[in-house]
Structure formats: C-alpha cells, structure tokens
Specification:
The protein has 199 residues and is of the alpha/beta class. It has six helices and ten strands. Strand 2 and strand 3 form a beta hairpin. The protein is globular.
Length: 199
C-alpha cells in the first residue's frame, strides 16, 4: 500500500500545539506523507497568541502550486485561512487544481466572524466548489447539510463537524456544525432517509 500524500493549508503555531505543527504530527502518526501551505505565522504558546503575520495571498498560492506541481495530493485539509484575500486566492487555485468539495467546520472557522464565514462560502460558490460544515445562513445550512454528491453512480452524504471554535462564539445569523451527538444522529438519519451512503 502506498503512503498517502496529505496536504494541510493552515497557520503556523510557534508553540507547536496547533495549526500546521499539530497537523503534520497527526499526518505522520497516521503514516502519511505530510505537505503544507502556510497561510499565517503566529507568535503563540500555551498562554495565548501575541502576534500574527500573514504572507501575501499570491505567496500562499505559490506554495500551493509548488506542492501540486511536485506531488499527487490524496487528501487535503484547511485550518486558519486568515484573510478574505487569502480565501479568494485559494478558492481560485483549488478550483483550478480540480478540487470540487470543501469541508469548512474547524476550530478556526469563526476567526474572522460572520464576514469570514460568508466570504468563505461566497468564494467557494463563485468557484463552483461545493461545501458543508460552516454556513452563511440558515438557507445555506438547509441546502448543504448533509451535502449530497453522486460519485461513480453512488449517492454520498457528507457531514462535517468541529469540536469548537477556539472560544469564539458562532456569529449570529451563521451556522457552524459543532460536535453534538443528537444533531449528528439526526443528520445521519436524514442522510439514510435520502439514500446517501456514509461512514
């Protein structure tokens, strides 16, 4: 069995407990080959974040293109994307790379408030990338949770949840799927009722 190449697109945690550093440790522990695109550098430790610096969106895309040009990517995940400019540039680059589905619920999805969630959803919609997990509003939630896809004649239901949002409240008017066994059970029941497969 070949080693899967797994890409993480996220911020760097100088304290090593989260962000790219935690993702790389997890990928390695799962016997994957880890690759990264860094969207922001943070100065942080277990006590808090004391500073954030983000590269220009063009440099973030340059990192992504370098990885995609050099390696097959078998799976990818995102974390902190930091700014509307980076989200916009990444949406275009991911679409151009053939990405057609994104899951948005993660601990950084509320970092930029309602505007950040709405920008992410709008940019993915603009690029034709389907999405679930974090939603611009209740209509987006109803349309994309669960997210139904058909692949090779098999109907799939995709759901996505996060354990939390780093202590930030979910912005009013938006929806983020938080881990909640009652809600998850209801989502899976809806998927089963519609004929979607799930794991």
């Amino acid at each position: 069995m070949r080693t899967p190449n797994i890409l993480t697109i996220a911020g760097s945690d100088s304290g090593g407990g989260a962000g790219i550093q935690a993702d790389l440790k997890t990928i390695m522990a799962l016997d994957g080959y880890d690759m990264s695109v860094i969207t922001a550098l943070t100065a942080q430790n277990g006590l808090g974040v004391t500073g954030i610096h983000a590269p220009e969106p063009e440099f973030v895309v340059l990192q992504l293109r370098a990885v995609l040009d050099g390696f097959p990517v078998h799976a990818a995940k995102t974390g902190m994307l930091f700014s509307a400019g980076i989200i916009n540039a990444l949406a275009d680059a991911l679409r151009d790379a053939g990405v057609d589905v994104a899951v948005l619920a993660n601990n950084h999805c509320c970092d930029n408030g309602a505007e950040g969630i709405r920008t992410s959803v709008e940019e993915l919609d603009r690029c034709g990338i389907r999405h679930t997990g974090a939603f611009a509003d209740s209509a987006d939630y109803k349309k994309n949770n669960p997210l139904y896809l058909t692949y090779c004649g098999i109907r799939l239901a995709i759901v996505n949840y996060t354990y939390g949002t780093n202590g930030m409240p979910v912005p009013e008017g938006t929806v983020v799927n938080l881990i909640d066994t009652v809600r998850m059970t209801a989502d899976l029941a809806a998927a089963r009722a519609s004929g979607g497969s799930h794991n």
